[in-house]
Structures are given as structure tokens and as C-alpha cells.
Amino acid sequence: SQPVQMLRPLPGTTVMQLTGPPDMAFALAGSTNLTNWTPLRTNITTGGYFDYLDAGPVALPRRFYRGRWVP
Predict the structure, then answer these.
(1) Are 58 and 52 contacting, i.e. CB atoms less than 8 angstroms apart?
(2) CB-based contacts of 35: which residues, under 8 Å, 6+ apart?
């Protein structure tokens, strides 16, 4: 499966599902310009994934996301 999957359950919100090996730490970050990144959440992939609800992007013209493994 893809490491970060976008889901959209409610208008004005975005849900990311980050998948990876079970019980590994991953960090999710957001950016409006692909240069400056803001940490959004670091979590353990319990069962191989974790979900993140971002209710903030509705006020932004665009939003990019990246997920990365945290050793």
C-alpha cells in the first residue's frame, strides 16, 4: 500500500492514513510551499497504520503533506 493515503470524510477536513511496518514511529508534516515544513504529528503505526485528521487546511490556498520514518 502507499505510505500516505488521503481520505476526506467531512467537508473542509482532510484525513491522512500513514501506513508502514507495525510498531514503527513515523512523523507527518505539512507545508504550503514545499520548502517550509511544520510538524503535525509523530505516532507509532499500531497495526501498521495511523490516521491524522487535519481540520486546518480549509483556510489555506494549498497544503502538502509528507510522512517519514523516525528512527
Answers:
(1) no
(2) none
Contact 45, 21 (CB under 8 A): yes
Distance, CA of 49 to CA of 71 (rounded, Å): 16
Query: Does position 1 have pLDDT exceeding 60, yes or no?
Result: no
Q: How far apart are CA 47 and CA 24, in angstroms?
A: 10
- Let me know: does 26 contact 45? Beta carbons within 8 Å: yes
- Mean pLDDT throughout 51-67? 80
pLDDT category of residue 17 using cuts at 50, 70 and 90: confident
Tell me how far apart the alpha carbons of residues 67 and 24 are, in angstroms, rounded to a whole number: 12
Chain centroid to Cα 37, Å, comes to 12
